[in-house]
Amino acid sequence: IRRPPRSTLSSSSAASDVYKRQVFNSKRKWKRVQMKNKKKVLKVVEDYINSAYESDGAMTRKIFDDDARVTGHINGKLIRQTKEDWATFVEKNIPSPKEQGKSKAYEILMVDTGEETAVVKVKSEYINIMFTDTLSFLRVDNEWKIYNKVFEATN
Questions:
Q1: How do strand 143-154 and strand 106-113 relate by DSSP bridges?
Q2: What ranges in the chain are assigned the alpha helix state H?
Q3: What pLDDT is recorded for position 68?
Q4: Going by C-beta distance under 8 Å and a sequence separation of 6 or more, which residues neighbour residue 97?
Q5: Cα within 13 Å of Cα(17), Cβ side
Q6: C-alpha to C-alpha distance for 55 and 51, rounded to whole angstroms
Q7: How much of the chain, in percent, has pLDDT values that exceed 70?
Q8: Residue 18 has pLDDT above 60, yes or no
Q9: CA-to-CA distance for 70 and 10, rounded, in angstroms?
Q10: Mean pLDDT across the stretch 124-129?
Q11: CA–CA gap between residue 147 and residue 140 (Å, rounded)
Q12: Which residues of 43-70 are buried (b: 16+ CB within 10 A; e: fewer)?
């Protein structure tokens, strides 16, 4: 946190008023950045849900970073996958949930975005299991990518 210079500690000084405006404008700019990034990140979350719903491995590969990891527990067993492992699993889920006539539903539980990173917690059903996914995002070459997926399965 940037502190005002000593000359601005008097609340009546002109320098103090300038400093207050700088801080206020900085906070407004940060809010605009957060909102813009939040929309972009939530678009990737929507693509993530659609890739599983449509068994679209190509979409999965597009939205996950090359170094991404998918980790969590299913029925007490620890699962650790690379981006490619996960994409292959997704595309082998044939017929897709969409083709099976299942409804697509998900709930965003939490979103926290910054300038370069974000975290989203999302709850959805996949392969007849309810999952809570914590997705970590990085902005890479001005695109938001899922860098890490940690999940837990609940019945």
A1: unpaired
A2: 14-53, 57-63, 83-91
A3: 98
A4: 52, 53, 54, 55, 104, 126
A5: 3
A6: 6
A7: 77
A8: no
A9: 54
A10: 92
A11: 10
A12: ebbebbbbbbbbbbbebbbebbbeebbb
The sign of the dihedral angle between the CA atoms of 62, 63, 69, 73 is negative
Write down the residue that tokens 């539980």 correspond to: 109
Sheet hosting strand 106-113, strand order edge to edge = 77-82, 64-74, 143-154, 129-140, 117-126, 106-113
Bridge-based pairing of strands 64-74 and 106-113 is unpaired
Write out pLDDT tens, residues 24-56.
Answer: 455 565 466 567 899 999 999 999 999 999 999
Would you give the DSSP letter of residue 56?
Answer: -
What would the mean pLDDT of 87-115 be, rounded to a whole number?
95
